[in-house]
Amino acid sequence: MYDFVIIGGGIIGMSTAMQLIDVYPDARIALLEKESGPACHQTGHNSGVIHAGVYYTPGSLKAQFCLAGNRATKAFCDQNGIRFDNCGKMLVATSPLEMERMRALWERTAANGIEREWLNADELREREPNITGLGGIFVPSSGIVSYREVTAAMAKIFQDRGGEIIYNAEVSALNEHKNGVVIRTSQGGEYEASTLISCSGLMADRLVKMLGLEPGFIICPFRGEYFRLAPEHNQIVNHLIYPIPDPAMPFLGVHLTRMIDGSVTVGQTRCWLSNVKAIASATSHLATRWKFWARRGFAGCCKTIYAQDWAR
């Protein structure tokens, strides 16, 4: 019988496992992951941005955790030899209305304790010759990393300290009893734990129901779709380029991301999925969306770029 079983081998599950075995070094701890390796779902399919905490309500847990997480992520990378690029984020205003919103964002970043720099149109053009805007806010603490590599490093630390990772173990049933929980997998495995910790991402509501409980929420999965610029355009921007967000919208808008592998992506869309397992399936026709993205601040760099579409 295990003292702890963690379900989910993304960055949340692996970070939990790594820290749990540090606190309880003599405990028997296992992590179950349905795929053949770590970070195969949300963790391995995001843009890899190390966020600074620009957008969150001052004093909120999100604001506090994002600032602390930014520093902790970079420290972990330094300690474990993981490459990251502290390239900074440029928030670009392209209209008088966005300039007003940018001033509000400027005050919010100050309240959140984030280092930033106000740029006028000329200063913006000097930093980013291929981006057109009326002004911008530069946030130097934003960066980029491969969260697959971060998660893999956490997995190694966990295993080196005596933790057990069981891949190809898709949970199919959970049965709670007075001394713990029995976990069964689609592959025929059976595991028993005194304490069960679910870090199961998009499947979290389903695992709650396996215990005969009502989660009180339903996960509605979305898939983000991107263009990747042709390699000859990898130097087109010097920083992460974001628009000034519309406060009435739940998303940050289309942005240019310098990936850790040197490529540049443009996106993303938000595509609702009726089937959570379709999260990494073939893309929709992104070419039809490109003309809607090639606008305002991106106009200076969209005429000559050919990009390949792909999904996260």
From TrEMBL:
Taxonomy, superkingdom: Bacteria
One Gene Ontology cellular component annotation held by this UniProt entry: cytoplasm
Keyword entries, A-Z: FAD, Flavoprotein, Oxidoreductase
Cofactor(s) this protein cannot do without: FAD
Cited InterPro entries: FAD-dep_OxRdtase, FAD/NAD-bd_sf
Residues of the FAD dependent oxidoreductase domain: 3-273
GO terms for MF: (S)-2-hydroxy-acid oxidase activity; (S)-2-hydroxyglutarate dehydrogenase activity
Gene3D superfamilies (alphabetical): D-Amino Acid Oxidase, subunit A, domain 2 (3.30.9.10), FAD/NAD(P)-binding domain (3.50.50.60)
EC number(s) given by UniProt: 1.1.3.15
Family: Belongs to the L2HGDH family.
NCBIfam families given in the database record: PRK11728.1
Record protein name field: Hydroxyglutarate oxidase
Organism field: Escherichia coli
GN (gene name): ygaF_2
